Amino acid sequence: MPMIPLSWLCDHVDVEPGTTAEDLAAALVRVGLEEEAIHPARVTGPLVVGRVLTRVEETASNGKVVNYCRVDVGEHNDAPGTGKEPSDLPSRGIICGAHNFEAGDLVVVCLPGAVLPGDFAIAARKTYGHISDGMICSARELGLGEDHDGIIVLTEQYPDRRIPEPGTDIVSWLGLGEEVLEINVTPDRGYCFSMRGAAREYSHSTGAVFRDPGLPGVLVDSVPEATPDGFDVRLADSSPIRGRAGADRYVARIVRGVDPQAPTPRWMAERLEMAGMRSISLSVDVTNYVMLDLGQPMHAYDLDSLAAPVVVRRARAGESLTTLDGQSRALDPEDLLITDSPDAEGSRVIGLAGVMGGEYSEVCPTTRDILLEAAHFDSVSVARTSRRHRLHSEAAKRFERGTDPLLPGVAAQRAVDLLVEYGGGTADPAVCDVSDLPAPTRVRMGVDEPERLTGVALDPRRVRGLLETVGCRVDGPDADGVLTVVAPSWRPDITGPADLVEEIARLDGYDRIPAVLPPAPAGRGLTRAQRARRLASDALAQAGLTEVESYPFVSDSFDRQGMGAEDPRRRALRLRNPMADDAPLLRTSILDTLLDVAGRNIARSNSHVAVFETGMVARPEGMVPAGLPSAQSRPDDEVVAALLAGTPAQPWHIGAVLCADATAPGVLSTPRPYDWADAVEAVRRVAGALGVRVEVTRAWTPEEARVSGPPMPRAATDPAEVAPFHPGRVARVFVRAGRDLVDVALAGELSPAACLAFGLPARSCGFEMDLDALVGAMPVDPIQVSAVSTYPLAKEDIALVVDADVPVSRVEQVVRQGAGSLAEEVRLFDVYEGDQVPEGKRSLAFALRLRAPDRTLTAQEAARVRSDVVAKARKLLGAELRG
């Protein structure tokens, strides 16, 4: 993220005296630049100039030679005869282990109470037999460099600067006391990765005077034109991406006779350090400084290592490059390269364009003649190369967001001036400036477009003025009220009217945009299916279950659930680009994710788990794969139809997993664990909330459950067919559609193998229901609520002897049909198989509760209901009344 020191920003914009980093952050936030952090000064507390008065070498008990010094620190001195170690001189006593100074030298003294980088607090302490009342500092201790061989002697290290008097605070003098603002820049505003861009935005926010350093006559006096004898550079991109050349401008400048040992000026090194970079060498520091200041990445080559011409081209098969970080990289044909010697045999790769230079031709400690590169590279090309090689350099960050194509000439001249001034070099009069820049994009926008998109009415003159403030060239409006706008060269993100409106709203003030809620159209609301899903979730939540939401991405857990090899649930869709490598599939069952959720809760000591989830599952049967459509135009009906055919069916399912105890332990009671009946009851609750009557049987197939078919067998169900449920303790739930039964759910106890595989307690239970199928069975008309009858209840008990393989739900259905509208409740209260009934039969006893809405039932009417039930059961089921 860009670092903005106020002292550097002041070079380009008039910052009000007394402005703090917090003030700067608030100003930039108003124009859309978010504050990331404010970094405090590197040194706090008293850091002053000191003059060494005496230096006495002493040998400690461990053999180390140290110096006991009396140091004059001005107003911070102890008076003669006072202090922690009294002296005849106004001074402080300090122990120092360095030996590169003498009495009379001016040094940097850190007094007690100061805090150095690394949160190193200074205090007076006894050491080597003396009280050291402060510290004489080295460059590394102050964060000014890596030198720790000796302390800073100001007269030696800053011979060209006037050294303040002893006792003077030197924090600001050394550039250590400035807060630095770090900002967060959105991808469309890459120009703010520079002091030039940040200063421009500060000007927009405050109205302060901005001096654009990117214009000739501001930071540089002038920019020379290209000359015929300039260094030969050729732009030869034979395979542009998206029809755009990888490079459309390349400026090359030569500086000869640069002193390789010339130091980087302190002010430049300090600014680089505040921006998060370390000083390396003058030539490298100059290119980095220009990049941070103007936003134009640059690169310096050793001129003696190059063979003209320099060619910008795409990589060839088999080429590689060892970059400045020492890694050898195999190149891709899409990589844009900087090369020299264009022969087929002798072509040499010297850099990845816009990303990183190569070891070959890099500036070294003996380089005197330098070729400076300032170019404009395509943002997409640089972004792809940077990601492909995982090289996220400072240059790539700027190029991939878009740089100013008109800036390379100014940036190159600025770098030349700095090398001449501080490196003693000579600017070569030969100038190379190869340009193939396209014509700027012209955007047409109606003057009423800002009001249409933001709701704020603006005068056309205000619209035009704000666009010109941004840097746009504006013509019009014409007779139709349309402005023709050319975006500034540093804003490649402005390509349409909406982009211009965004700039207008940003500068006019987001706070001026009214907050208006859109009116809700009448006659709309939740769909029937949406209401049903909410009712289903509410029913389970009211029953004490907890709703969870999980990602629909799963691993291959089919074997853990015990599914058969031909189970359709195994045909899961594999994602081309999964969020996690260990979860590449779309779930085909809601239990795919719920079992993991329950197991995770159990593993984290949550002993009571009753969770449910409502969500979609993916069933790819019948899919016809479709290719990816082009994004260049709106897809036609044929393409849309192909996409729909390639989209899997995604029905809504609802499921639950119930573990451990259904009731909490009490003083006088023992807890009851969940069993299969709780899972079945949960299914009945969901169905009841939707007004659907379900039929529950053992887990037979729908064909076996048809009432018109043969007697149903008592053989156990194949475990793989009902996985992950226990084959003997699971119920299948149906809804009736005419004479057919539609399978909608399985509910019951999970198999021991599944419980073990997912880390669940033994005999855990659950269910999964096809919610879409249940919604399809909902009554079309609203559920009618009958008035509560105030008349007395009549009771009848009936015990019917039926074949043992007839489902209880079927018998109950027949009893209800026989009782008719007078049946308020039909409840099974006894099942008997034994000596008193024939073999292959069983007795099912039902309690009937009868009530009429308009009268008291007579004994004769109750008896007639009883006889009707027995007759109906005898006719449809062959049942007999048990004697």
Summary, kept brief:
The protein has 23 helices and 39 strands. It is an alpha+beta fold.
Strand order of the largest sheet: 27-30-31-35-34-33-32
Name the beta content range.
15-25%
Q: Output the number of helix runs.
A: 23
CATH architecture assignment of the largest domain: 2-Layer Sandwich
CATH level 1 name of the largest domain: Alpha Beta
Describe the model:
This protein is an alpha+beta fold and 883 residues long. The chain has six domains: 67 residues, Phenylalanyl-tRNA Synthetase, Chain B, domain 1 (2-Layer Sandwich); 111 residues, Nucleic acid-binding proteins (OB fold (Dihydrolipoamide Acetyltransferase, E2P)); 203 residues, Phenylalanyl-tRNA Synthetase, Chain B, domain 3 (3-Layer(bba) Sandwich), CATH 3.50.40; 71 residues, Phenylalanyl-tRNA Synthetase, Chain B, domain 1 (2-Layer Sandwich), CATH 3.30.56; 248 residues, Bira Bifunctional Protein, Domain 2 (BirA Bifunctional Protein, domain 2, 2-Layer Sandwich); 88 residues, 2-Layer Sandwich (Alpha-Beta Plaits). 25% of the residues lie in helices and 25% in strands. The strands form eleven sheets. Strands 27-30-31-35-34-33-32 form a seven-stranded mixed beta sheet, with helices on both faces. A five-stranded antiparallel beta sheet has the order 5-4-3-6-11, with no helix packed on it. The protein has a five-stranded mixed beta sheet with strand order 13-16-19-20-21. A hairpin with a 2-residue loop joins strand 9 and strand 10. The radius of gyration is 42 Å and the shape is elongated.
